[in-house]
Write a structure and sequence with these properties.
CATH architecture: 3-Layer(aba) Sandwich
Structural class: alpha+beta
Number of helices: 5
Order of helices and strands: EEHHHEEEHEHEEE
CATH class: Alpha Beta
Distance between the termini: 26 Å
Bound molecules: coenzyme A
Number of strands: 9
Shape: globular
Strand order of the largest sheet: 1-2-3-4-5
Oligomer: single chain
CATH superfamily: Gcn5-related N-acetyltransferase (GNAT)
Radius of gyration: 15 Å
Helix content: 25-40%
Length: about 170
C-alpha cells in the first residue's frame, strides 16, 4: 500500500519516520520550542526512538504522527498527529503539534491541524482525542481552542501538572 499523504494549500504531510530524523532532531533540540512541550530539549536518540515507535504505530494502527513540509520546497516545518497516551486518565489518544519557530504565527498549525483532524475521522475509531499543554506555553491553549478543543481539568502527567484538552471525534 502507498504511504498516505495529505496536501493543503501550502503544505504536504507524510507519515513521520526514521528518514526524518535529522530534521525532527533539530526541531526537538530547540529549547525555545521544547519549553512549551515538556520543559526541555530532546536528544537525538530519544527522537530516533520516537520516530521508530511512530513507524510501528502507523503499521499497527493505521494512524500516527505526520511530518509537515512546505508543499513547494519540501522543507521540514514541523510534526503533528496522533499517538497513544497511556499516562493520561480516561484518555486514549493524544493530538500534538510542534512547528519550528521560524514558521510561527503564519497559520501553518491551523492549516495542518484542520487537514489532520479531518483525515483522522477515517483512520481513528475512538470517540475523543486529547491534547496536553505545558503551563509555560502561551500559544498552546489558544491554538487548541481555535481548532475546536475544549479544556478539561488539569492533570499531573509525566511528572508535572499539564492542561488537558479534548475534542469530540469530528463528524
Ligand atoms: C502552538 C503552535 C503549534 C502554534 O503554531 P502556529 O503555526 O504559530 O499557529 P497558527 O499561526 O496557526 O495560530 C493559530 C492560533 O494559535 C494561537 N497562537 C499562536 N501563537 C500564539 C502566541 N504566541 N500567543 C498566543 N496565541 C497564539 C492563536 O489563537 C492563533 O490564532 P490567531 O492567529 O487567529 O490569533 C506553535 O506555537 C508551537 O509549535 N508551539 C510549541 C508546541 C506547542 O505548544 N504545541 C501546542 C500543544 S499541542
Amino acid at each position: 500500500m502507498d504511504a498516505p499523504s495529505l496536501r493543503t494549500k501550502r503544505l504536504v504531510l507524510l507519515p513521520l519516520g526514521s528518514a526524518d530524523l535529522d530534521e525532527a532532531a533539530a526541531l526537538f533540540a530547540d529549547p525555545r520550542v521544547m519549553v512549551h512541550i515538556d520543559g526541555g530539549a530532546r536528544g537525538r536518540s530519544i527522537t530516533s526512538r520516537l520516530l521508530q515507535a511512530n513507524e510501528r504505530c502507523w503499521k499497527t494502527e493505521g494512524w500516527g504522527l505526520w511530518a509537515i513540509r512546505d508543499a513547494t520546497s519540501g522543507a521540514f516545518i514541523g510534526q503533528s498527529g496522533l499517538q497513544r497516551i497511556p499516562e493520561l486518565q480516561d484518555a486514549d489518544v493524544e493530538f500534538s503539534m510542534v512547528i519550528g519557530r521560524r514558521n510561527w504565527r503564519l497559520g501553518i498549525a491551523t492549516e495542518a491541524a484542520n487537514a489532520i483532524l479531518y483525515d483522522a475521522r477515517g483512520r481513528f475509531s475512538g470517540n475523543q482525542i486529547h491534547a496536553l499543554v505545558h503551563p509555560d506555553s502561551a500559544a498552546g491553549g489558544p491554538f487548541l481552542r481555535r481548532i475546536g478543543f475544549r479544556r478539561d481539568d488539569d492533570q499531573f502527567v509525566r511528572g508535572e501538572t499539564l492542561e488537558v484538552w479534548h475534542t469530540q471525534r469530528l463528524g
